[in-house]
Each structure stands twice: as C-alpha cells, then as structure tokens.
Amino acid sequence: MLNWSAALSQFLMNLGLPQEVALGITFFIGALVLASIGPVLALVLIHITRKVISRIQDRLGPNRLGPWGIFQSAADAVKLLSKEDIRPAEADVIAYTMAPLLAVFGVIMSLAVIPFANGLIGVDLNVGVLYLVALGSIGIMSALMAGWSSNNKYALLAGFRVVAQLLSYEIPMVLAMLGPVLLVGSMRMNQIAAFQRLEIAGFNIGAGYTAFIIPAMAMIFFISALAESEQTPFDLLEAESELIAGFHIEYSGMKFAMFFLAQFLNSFFLGAIMVTLFFGGWQGPFVDQLPILGVVYFLIKCFAVYVVMQWVRGTFPRVRIDQMMDFAWKVLVPLVLLLILWQMVALKLPVPTWIQYVSVFVGNIVVVGIVLGVLGRYFRGEQLRTKRAFEPKSLIGTMQPAPETAGD
Amino acid sequence: MMDILSQLFPLPPIPTVPQAVFILIALVTVVGALIVAIAPNLYHNALGLIVAFFGAAGIYALLEAEFLAVSQVLIYVGAISTLITFAIMLTRGMMFGRTSRNNKQVLTAAIMSCLLFVTLWGVIGHVPWPSVFADLPNGEAIIAKLGELFVTTYMIPFEMMALLLLVALAGALMLARDK
After folding, report:
1. Element (DSSP H or E) covering residue A199
2. For residue A54, what are the β-bridge partners?
3. Contact B82 A141 (CB under 8 A)
4. Which residues of chain B make contact with A186, given a CB cutoff of 8 A?
5. pLDDT of B70-105, one tens digit each?
C-alpha cells in the first residue's frame, strides 16, 4: 500500500532534517490541509445547495457576483464575519462559547479517517468505523450545550428534540455501517474502500461497490444520514422556511456561522462516509496505475451524493416529529436488525463466496420489498381514511370532518 | 550561586515526548475531575465529567488501545454524559445553580473517600504489576482477537452484560409507560 506521508517525511529527511522534525512537519502539513478543507468546502457546498434548489424551484439562484454567482457565498461569509456577536445576558458563558466550537470540532475530526485516495488518509485507524460513530456523540453534546446555555426555553426544548432525533437515527445508521464491515472483515476505512474492486480480465474497473451486495443497508444509511445531518425531510428542528432556528436561536454572527458550517460539512462528510462504505470510495478505472485519480473519483462521488441530498431537500415535504420517531424505531431499526442477522447467517454458509453474496443480496431485496409492501398498504389505507373523513355526508353536505369512527 | 540552587532544587529530567503528552492529558483529566467536585453549578459538573472522560480516552489512545479509547468516547461521552445531562435538565430546580455542594453527609463522604483513596494507594503499591512479554497482535488481528474472546472465554460476563442492559431497558419502559 502506498503511504503518502511516509514519502513526504522521507523527502524531508533526504533534505537533511532529523527524523522527529521531518515527521512533525509532515503531521503538521496533513493536519493543516485537513482542517482548512472544511471552511473552503462549506462555501462550495452552500453554492451548490443554492443552485440545485433554485433549479428545482425554477429560479436562477445567485447570479450577480462573478460568473454563475460563485462569489455570493464568499460575500455572505464576510457579512457573517462582520456581524455583531450578541450574547444573552443570562447565558452561561463557558458552555455558550464552547458549543459552536464543539459542533465544528466533531464534524471536522471525521476527516481524519476518510481515505481520499489509496493511502491518502489522515490516520488509518484499525477502528475507523467505530471512531466515526463515536464522533457523532460530540455533535449531540454540542447541541445540548447550546440549547441549555442560551438560557432560553425554546432553545432548550429544541436541544432536547435534536438529541431525540440524533440518538434515534444513530442506531440504524451505526447498524447499517456494520454491513460493509461484516463483508470486508475490517473497520479500516482504506481497507473497506480497497475491498470494493472489480476485476474484469485482470483490469480493475473499481465498481465492486458493496451497495450492489447490500443495497438496503446503503438506503438505510442514506436515510439515517439525512436525519443525522438535519436535512429535509428531517429538518423539523430548524424548519428554515417557516420558523426561527432551533437550539441555536440565541446565536448570532460568527458563532451562528459555526453551527451553519457544521451542518453543511456534516451532510457532506456523511455523504463521504457513505461513498467510502458503500460506493467504493476512491475506486475507479485506472486507479491502480495512477493512484491520484482516486481523489477525483472520490470527490465526484461525494458531490454526487451531496447533490442527491439537495434534490431530496428540494422535493420532499417535512415529516412530523411523531412520524419521524415512528419511522426510526418501528421501521428502520427492526429492518436493519433483520438485515444484519441475515447477512451474518449468509456469510457463514458453507458455500462459495459469490453464492453468499447473492444470498445476502436476495435477502436485502426481499426484506425491503416486504417492508415497502406493508408500509404502502398502511399509507394507502390512511389516505383512504382521511379522504373519506373529509367527504360530504349528503349531497348538500358541508365539508365538516366526520367523527373519528366514520369509515372504519 | 547557580550551582547551589541546582543542588538544592534539582531540575526534573526533561520528559520524553510520550511522557509530555501523558502529563498534558493527565492534567486535563485532573482539571475535569476537579470541576466535577468543585464547580457550584451542576451542569458545569457534568461538563467537567465529559472533560475527564475525554482525558481517560486520551490515556487509552496513548497506550495504543484504540478500541478502548473509541469505546470510551462512544459510551461515556456519547451515552452516559447525555443521560446525566438529561437528568439534570429535567430537574429544573437543580439546573440554575440553586444547589449546594454540601449536605448532611459531608463528613461521612469525606471519611469514606479518604478510606477509598488509602485502599487504592495500598493496592496500587503492592500489586506486582506484570509486564507483558508476549507480542500483541497488531492491526485487524487485535480487534478480531477481542471479538473472539468475547464469545469464547468471556462469554458469560458478556452475555450477562447484555441481559442487564435488556432488564434496564424493560424497566425504563415500565416506568415510562402511561398508566
């Protein structure tokens, strides 16, 4: 396996630097690059969001500053920087200041284990996937801290709701992450990406995605990622279009921008994790010959997933909180548990590997089919019931809703 | 003059890099623990506890026990602290600093904690800490070995833990159910 940092530190040592200094400089450069990707990326992501959503809503979006309005996000960032930093009089200073920092910290730390190309990874932890799961809990803490320290009961209530949502959707997300881990037999992110190669006549076209074997897991991960990053249809915590924001209601200026940054980056990085786990990461044609191509493939896939997220955001209605919780606990969790169980059994069957994969795939399709069937029947019944409840009772009837029992 | 000073107060040896890192992490942990014990506001105590948990995770990471470090963050920072914070927030009276750190049991608690400290001190001093000579498996193998031990040698404790959690879950459901 290539190791880019080893190459760099070797180069520095060849220049005559002692080993410690060379290693120190290498680590510093790596950390600096990773940490500064975030803010720059956020500007790009905001621009993409605006353009995609405006396309869906049949408008042009930002188009004044620079070609295609690409400098609009930069102008907005400068505006946020110059805003006054207001703090509620009774706020708890320490927690109030720490919360936005923690939010961004928890998100940017996940960059450390994301492989951009073969071997181009901050640190290839042997518990990489578990590390990503653990980072999710920091986001929860920051939301609670922000909600509590603002000394505003609406912020506190919103903080509780954030925690309820994030905790509920963390369970299906973590269990869905187990799918590729079970297939590969490793929690190293780079190894999971390296596993997803597909050789045709000795040439790696890099399309052996785990999503082809466990499509249902990939779907569950995507839905949970939408909820974890507080995107539509699960953005009822923020409801940007109708309400003031939730737990960060009392924040202004740069502190608010930090939460904003964390949210955008979180949705992008969850997409990146999804790409690594389910869509081959840096895999693609010619990646064995020219490893740097991996960065291109990886970024293309990540932005594609991000655009799909914005597509969902532009087209789906928001769910109610009870529907959201029901969906997590009554649909996603049992579904993903069943899938994991089947996958574990199938991977232990004493048959060739490809039969195991096919049986896992068939299991995925069957389970999802059954769930969609049950849900479809339920919602069709629900639709009929509500429609019937609003039908006029006589020819000259009013549009009064009928009593609860009618029509059942 | 300088000679006498350096004889009287010999400078501590310059720590190596791991030692320096350990000292930093230990300081963070101790400060966190002190906040837990001293801060007047209950919520600040919870935050201090999180800092202490992070410090412990850092020590595990320093000892190259990545699995333990990550689990520490996942379980203690993620689950336990959230639980504690929730408990504090749902009791509004305690939330805004109207609690006193002292109650009637101050003396008992002081005696008990002193005794505990002495006991721990004695135990730490007298246990012949074994040093591991066998090579640890590295990389994936160490995680695989851990998983294997969970379902072979330590199966009963592992399953008991699962059972305990299940009982706790059922109990919580019973308590929270509408009458």
Report:
1. strand A199-200
2. none
3. yes
4. 140
5. 888 888 888 888 888 888 877 766 555 555 666 778
- Comparing CB atoms, the residue among A134, A167, A186 nearest residue B73 is A134
Domain assignment present for B125: no
Nearest to A140 by CA among B172, B86, B52: B86
What is the distance in angstroms between the Cα of A137 and the nearest Cα belonging to chain B? Answer: 4
Residue B93, domain CATH = 1.20.120.1200
Q: Which residue among B98, B127, B162 closes a domain?
A: B98
Q: Does B41 touch chain A (CB under 8 A)?
A: yes
A188 vs B contacts (CB less than 8 Å): 140
Pairs of residues, one from chain A and one from chain B, whose beta carbons lie less than 8 Å apart = 73
Residue A193 has pLDDT above 80, yes or no: yes
Query: What's the pLDDT tens digit per position in A292-315?
Result: 888 999 999 999 999 999 999 888
Q: Amino acid letter at B172?
A: A
Domain segments of chain A as ranges: 34-82, 87-382
- The answer to whether residues A187 and A231 touch, using CB atoms and an 8 Å cutoff, is no
pTM: predicted TM-score of the whole model, two decimal places: 0.85
Same domain for B94 and B146? Answer: no
Give the residue among A136, A96, A131 at the shortest CA–CA distance from A114. Answer: A131
Residues in chain B within 8 Å Cβ distance of A177: none
A375 CB-near residues (< 8 Å, 6+ apart): A331
B147 and B70 within one domain: no
| Interface mutation target, options B14, B44, B47, B142, chain A, most CBs of A under 10 Å | B47
C-alpha A221: how far from its chain's center?
8
Cβ-contact A167, B107 below 8 angstroms:
no
Per the domain annotation, does B127 fall within a domain? no
**Domain that residue B28 falls in:** 13-98
Chain B residue with minimum CA distance to A124? B139
The C-alpha of A27 sits at a distance from chain B's nearest C-alpha, in angstroms, of 15
Closest CA to B40 of B106, B92, B100, B127: B100
Q: Are residues B86 and B153 in the same domain?
A: no
> How far off is chain A from B29, nearest CA to CA, in Å?
18
Do B140 and A188 make contact, defined as CB atoms within 8 angstroms? yes
Contact A278, A210 (CB under 8 A): yes
User: Per the structure, how many domains does chain B have?
Assistant: 2
For chain B, state the CA radius of gyration.
22
- 8 Å CB contact of B82 and A137: yes
Tell whether B25 and B91 lie within a shared domain.
yes
- Record: contact A95-B47, CB cut-off 8 A: yes
Residue (of A181, A183, A185) closest to A133 by Cα position: A181
pLDDT tens digits for range A33-60:
888 888 888 889 999 999 999 999 998 8
